[in-house]
Structures are given as C-alpha cells and as structure tokens.
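Sharing a chain and its predicted structure for anyone who wants a worked example. Both blocks are below, sequence first, tokens second.
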Amino acid sequence: MLTGVFKTTKKDGTVYFRSSFTYNNKHISLGSFPTEWAAHTAYAEANNIMTSTCAIEDYADVFTISFEKYVILINLRDNGMYCKTPIYLKEKFFYYYFSKKEYLIFDTDDLFYYSSHKIMRRKGHLFVADYGMQVNILSRYGIKNYAVPGKDYLFINGNPSDFRYENITIINKYHGVTFLLKDGKERFKTKIHINGDFLIGVFDSETEAAIAYNKAVDILKKKGLKKNFSTNYIEGLSPKKYAEIYSDLKIAKKIQEFEI
C-alpha cells in the first residue's frame, strides 16, 4: 500500500481505500476514496497543507481532499484546534464554511456546539441534526420557525450570514404577535390564522398580546376547532399573574362568535 492508505471492504464486497495521517500525535482521517492512488494523493495534500502557508481561498476543484477537510486542517494548523466541522477560528468569533465564498459567522460561545453539529442547508433554511431531529439554527436565538426576516427579526449590520448574538434583534418573538407604532405609541397586534387571518385585538404590551393569542386558541378549541395551534410561553410570569391578565383580556367578538 502507498503511504497513508488502508484498503478496506464494504459489506457488499466492494473494495475502497481510506486515507489518514498523524499531526502533533493526533491521528486524523481524511476520508474514503475509490482508488489507492486517490487516497495517497489526499494524504500528500494533507501533509502539504500542514507544512505550507496556503489559505482557505487557495482551495481548488482539482484537489482530492474535500473542501470541508481542507478547512478543518488549515484551522488545526493555524489555531491548534481540531474540529470535526469546517470551522476557522478568529479571536472573538469563527467562520463556518460551505465553500470559499460561502460562510456563516458565529460567536465563540457557539464553538462547542457547531464543532460537533454539522450545518445542513435546505431551501434557504439552516438545520443541524440534534437528538435525531432536524433543528433550525434560528431557534438558538429564540426565533420561531415561522418568523420572517426583516419583520420578526433583523440582522443589524444587514448581513444575513452573521449569526453573532449582537447582530440579531428579535422584533416579534410570540406566535401571532406583531409590533406596530400607532400615533407614536408602541402597540402589539395579535392575529390568528384559521381560514385566513382573524384579528384578536391590539394591546399595550407584548405580554398581553401573547396571552391574548393563547386565550383565542382556548376559545376556538372549546368551540371544537381541531387545529394544532402552537401557544405562547411567557417566561418569568407567575401563574397567578398570568391568570389575572388572561381573565381581563378582551378578545375580538369575531373570535368569540366563531362557528365551525
């Protein structure tokens, strides 16, 4: 076998070749390849990366080693940290790469999570596999799956790839609640979708608006509407205070008189 290459066999008898090398006493797998020569070429490329000054922007399609592994090795070389995902560390943040020109930016607080959770992309959404489920990464910021960028949350610097906490502002964090400015005063409008949007009411506080949504859901369920509404959880509110607000809230007549 050529240097750095190991021959192995799949369950169906197909032969393939694995490549690996050692750096600073750490054994690093480079992946699987269809031929012995390809596996050895990946080994040679990895050793060249670790002894050269090549940058992430220098990656080329003719390389045998994958772009993901290329980033992992450059980060190890430059920062002395091995991550299982294509992360490159900076002093106070890190990049998570998809390609040379496509990357996300995260705070170092998220390093442990994203070094062990691979980010997947589907139709513009970003997910990780967590406990067997696909979890939208926006949920780490308290942003709901249905949230609309620019309406429910904002990237302060205008870069939708910058997920540092200081760059994200949540405008509307509750189901059915929308912030509005009326006559110079902050108000919160609550709507619920049945067959079209139904106005529940306009309220002075976001908390009242969120609880009003829950109350509307309760009313509709009592009327026999079998729809799986998500309700709002209001953090830091005692059960007694919640009940007081819930009892005092007036819900639109159209909701109260709704018929299936």
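Comments welcome. The helical segments are 36-51, 67-79, 111-114, 206-222, 239-248, 253-256.
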